[in-house]
Amino acid sequence: MLKLPNDGPATGRLLSQVLRGDGPAAIVHAIARAQAPLMERLAAGRLHGDPTKIVGVNDSGDRQKALDVGAHHHMVEVLRRAGVRQVLSEEAEAVIPLNPDGGWDVAMDPIDGSGSIGIGAPLGMLFSVLPAAPEGFLRTGESVVAAGYASFGHSMDFGWSLGDGTHVAGWDAEAQEIRIVRENATLKPTASTVAYNASNERHWAPGLQRWAADLRAGRDGPLGKDYNMRWLAAAVGELHRILLNGGAFLYPADRRPGYERGKLRLVYEAMPIAFLVEQAGGLASDGTQPIRYRQPLAVHDMTPLIFGAKHEVETILGYLAEPTEG
Length: 326
Known about the structure:
- Its main location: cytoplasm.
- The chain is α+β, with helices and mostly antiparallel strands.
- It folds into two domains: 15-184, Fructose-1,6-Bisphosphatase, subunit A, domain 1 (Fructose-1,6-Bisphosphatase, Chain A, domain 1, 2-Layer Sandwich), CATH 3.30.540; 193-321, D-Maltodextrin-Binding Protein, domain 2 (3-Layer(aba) Sandwich), CATH 3.40.190.80.
- The chain is 27% helix and 24% strand.
- It has eight helices and 17 strands.
- The chain has helices spanning 15-18, 24-33, 35-44, 66-81, 206-216, 235-245, 266-279, 310-320; strands at residues 54-57, 63-65, 86-89, 96-97, 104-112, 123-131, 146-152, 156-161, 167-172, 177-182, 193-195, 228-230, 248-251, 264-265, 283-285, 302-303, 305-308.
- The protein has an eight-stranded mixed beta sheet, sandwiched between helices.
- A hairpin with a 5-residue loop joins β1 and β2 (63-65).
- It is globular and about 55 Å long.
């Protein structure tokens, strides 16, 4: 590995020294350890075959790529060995039973942002852990006891929370271990960076279109400051960036057919993000209420999602709540 002038030995406690014991901590640790094979396969690109090859269609109607399906099967086996009772995955229509006597359920998106496979853009995975219960995954986010993500970019980063703050770790290639790089990540209430797909703006609610116009007006407009804009096309990449550097993200509902109730998945995308962001002092909303209060109507239910710095999210929600003219 190239050594930079200010480099020294790797620092930070090993994740194995922190995530000890049974229950959610053991599950989160198992998921973290399982990321190395995914990272290595991504790094290999097309050397062994095409990870973007279409091999099926999931319940969302999204085309499944080889990496989507491979990551799904890999993680299901990891969770089986970890004693998880059942798994809900974006890449499977039905809930997958694993260990009938298990005490915990896991919801996951094995590869978030799979449209970016093979082009070097960030992607990763999202998951949440819930106590086993008869209602399965049809529970609000208030039932989540742990959540996390992996982000694959120029580094492999892993973030998690057991309800004691949000923490971020990174892959130490020399030790072949994961080390903590930031404990208790905290989001400042204000930010100057926002992320959204501007090509959909014309379909948004009028109040939200006014917010976007005021944002672009910068310091000369009602918001009184200049903003930078980012769009990584992977919610997990935006989550990682926002936890480290602040900001806000929105993927709202809009007028297009199929987008009226949002497009991100509630149980295994929005709920983990909401848990992590709130543990870091931020907010996560569907535009009308906190994500943690949303009751899923189905395991693959969709939702709008706005998350990030508290004051920025509150400002967006204020514009959304404006009455429609006429």
